Amino acid sequence: LNAILGMADLLWExxxxxxxxxxxxxxxxxxxxxxxxxxxxxxxxxxxxGTLTLEVADFDLNELLERTCEIMAMRxxxxxxxxxxxxxxxVPSFLAGDPFRLRQILINLIGNAIKFTEKGEVVVEVxxxxxxxxxxxxRTLHFSVRDTGIGIPPEKKExxxxxxxxxxxxxxxxxxxxxxxxxxxxxIVERMGxxxxxxxxxxxxxxxxFGLSLRVAAxxxxxxxxxxxxxxxxxxxLIADDNATSRGILxxxxxxxxxxxxxxxxxxxxxxxxxxxxxxxxPFELLVTDILAPPLDGLALAQxxxxxxxxxxxxxxxxxxxxxxxEALGSARPGVAVSLWKPVKESAFLAALLxxxxxxxxxxxxxxxxxxxxxPPQRPLRVLLAEDDPVSRTLAxxxxxxxxxxxxxxxxxxxxxxAIERAAPSAFDLVLMDIQMPEMGGLxxxxxxxxxxxxxxxxxxxxxxxxxxxQEGQILEVGMDxxxxxxxxxxxxxxxxxxxxGTQDERPKAAAERSAKDGEFDEAAALAYVGGDRELLSExxxxxxxxxxxxxxxxxxxxxxxDSAALERVAHKLKGALSHFSTRTAFEMAERLEAMSxxxxxxxxxxxxxxxxxxxxxxxxxxxxxxxxxxS
Length: 632
Ligand code: ADP
Prior knowledge:
single chain; five-stranded parallel sheet; 48% helix
């Protein structure tokens, strides 16, 4: 696959007719699908041979669900399906378990639900299964993912959990997939001590359920105190949403905050209720509305409400599904105090309500259009490549040379050491090192070199090339600066080269202190995050590329105006978005900005902002290239 995918990339960059390009695209995609299949097979064989190890780590369940639903929302909204999630208030958020595997299961179930649903909704729910006493150390939680899709016939209900089984071959053709997702998920659930089951009705929808017993973890001390909900108590709020489940969830949340909600299913009904309440002398204080459908959509409703309160305030929170983001962003929005993307997160919703009431910082920062940061000119690098396999070596040499770099290729670790020894000091900018090579492998060679550097000084960046993410620990331990997954993806390679350029263009000391994960777009980690789904990752990348300039200009504006509340809010949002891409500097700077503004200590904000901008520029390049390569 290394050779197939790599050669496809090289071929793509040659002069091809339109027809030839289509062919290359087809076999590139086929190769990627095969890679996905191999990863799934590896996963299932790990579970079956009992070598799948579960991690135990403290995690925040609410955050895990929020992030997971956020990334899945794009797919759902692109099909016009509502995606909603709710965690019952008595479910503890801080738990111990394996968050990565839990996310893998949820991504699989939600992904299936979206895939097999043409209209309606997908709802994820977590509640307590047993009423354990408060003193007990564990909680048995019930997870469910339900959809309003095509359903599964009764006689197939059990077989869908088997390997390579799909309901029928015609759906296979229509929907694609490998038939391994549920087999993997159900086995992982079993390993975690639960059982994955399904209820389904053909044409009505399906519901997948599992229970897990998880240990309650301590609440981390760091972090901001949750905002005070007291100002919301007793307030009358009108909720307009055409999806009954979402309406129910919103209603439940505000009731939990002791507000008094009334709900409506469309704009006209909402407007009638708003007016009636006003005439009766019991006006609503807040409107929460989905973007809705004509004749009276959410924006028009917000405007009418705004005018009816004589523009004294803008009491509207607008909720927008991602596929209608342009409507929400593009037009002037008189009357909208705060705008949120769906699915709505509890914490963000609370903050939005408080802000709409003027209790949580300024209402909105104007979305002045920003320019995308300029692309820095690319400097060629001198690369030492150590790779024993002739096909992979040729491929890597070609990839590098096509980009103007100078390559010296060797085929063992000891040859690499000899080449470095022979060459003038700093003759190479970077070593790309295979891990498994005859005579001396990449790990040993690196260990040797690092030892030498201890007395001689210097730090030559070394990037491993490996087929196994599992080696990450060893790779970093011996002093390598990062790794590239085989088959080598040109975009990921470029991101690593960017990182090398970045560290060399900075002060040398800073370069030595940084770790290689700084390549702003850490493709390997980002892919692992979405379970290897390249298409999903490229959808996410496109979304971030759309959002980043706007967020950045809001940040600049907030910093100019010394508005720490706005700065904190936008930095937090950006940090969340960046976390999906496992970037380092950009994420850290957003985090730092958020912390500074929380302390209202803005003296160093301009520097942090500048670093953030630069890092975002590098990230955008990597993401844009990735999205270009992988969009279908
Ligand atoms: P894949 O989705 O790759 O085909 P899975 O193991 O995840 O593999 O699912 C196996 C089969 O179960 C699917 O092909 C489909 O026929 C059926 N299935 C899974 N989830 C759903 C769902 N939410 N609605 C309808 N059918 C489903």
